[in-house]
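Cont'd.
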Amino acid sequence: MRNKLTEIEEAIAGIRDGMSIMIGGFGMPGTPFTLLDELVRQAPKNLTIIKNDANEIGMGIDLLLKAGLVEKLIASHIGLNARAVEQMNAGRLKVEFNSQGILAERIRAAGAGLLGIVTDIGVGTMLQNGKTAIDMDGVTALIEPALKADYALIHAVQADTFGNLKFAATARNFSPLMAMAAGTTVVEAEEIVALGKLAPDEIHTPGPFVQKVVGLRVISEAYDVVRRA
Amino acid sequence: MSSDAREMMLRRAALELNDGDTVNLGIGLPTKVLAHVGPSITVCVHSENGVAGMGRLAENSAADRNLIDAGGNYITTLAGASYFDSAVSFAIIRRGNLDLTMLGAFEVASNGDLANWIIPGKFTPGTGGAMELAQKARRVIVLTTHVDKAGKPKLVEQCTLPLTAQRCVHRIITDLAVVDVSSGGFELVELFAGVSVEEVKAKTGAPLVIPHPPAIFN
């Protein structure tokens, strides 16, 4: 089994201007804060970011928005980040809204080698605009194309050196789907363990989907519980 | 809305949960319904970010940084809970395994159309999971004030805002009344104590059918 441990600088260095990047996480849990810090440092531009939400001001992908690195955001909900809404309204950020489960399923389809999915979700709403509608046994349905990306940035609680992954609680969310759907999947893990230490029955993402594994030396404050007023 | 009216809405909404149901309670008011459910009722609460079997909100000191609901609140889980990815989470919704969802609304039409995700030019957060919840839960109950902040009815003949889903709402619980969406349009089922039929009629933007004298909810 190939050893995929990589230094963080090198893991991110392949991300070029104009690339598409999937970023795991739903709100805070599962957001790869350390990889995002390195991405901001290396600062490739005109990125297309695919993430469920836009995090909150000062957290996660907001740092990419703040640095002006994002041209387009594909998401389901950005309401908790006023900067994302403001950039969108000012025409500086293109935003493509997807229904949350359809976003997940489009990503899963790409990761499963499918070209798209057929669904009745969104029929008769604004989200039908621009999509091909077909008749499926008398039901109007939309064709939703599979969604892939050049890179996926993923946070795992545990990884082995081959890239077998485990996620914690609701930090799983989009991560296993995105890990399947990108050309290069980069994982930051809270703990790196030796091959054989993760029970095969308990692995959430199998190693063949993962290209690079970065061990976190510290779990920064960014990962802490957010104390809201 | 006064805190008394809000309390009454939440207490009334809690009566809609049946023991053994699997439910999803939307962000905002619906999330708060759980605190009003009686001790004899146990439901499996699903949250679209990947948990079934959530319990009460977690105390700050006991919060687990990896465990939230879809609204970003730190939560606890009950015995029997499970975690899953976002595709599985929405499979639970779309295949019809939710007995009930409770959602907020900007507008509900008398045919059951729901608008709750965008006010063009003013409020554009995105749909999140609302479309799939509204379209696929077996029963959809809307929790909303009867009129908006400007006093305009939220129960209308036709939605003017972009839809979340067509013909999906079964019941509306407001700060004045319980109204069902029937084949004949809005039907007044219950009045909150102290509210008159005339007031509800005046604040509803569509005809209101009253097939039986409405029950009074105290």
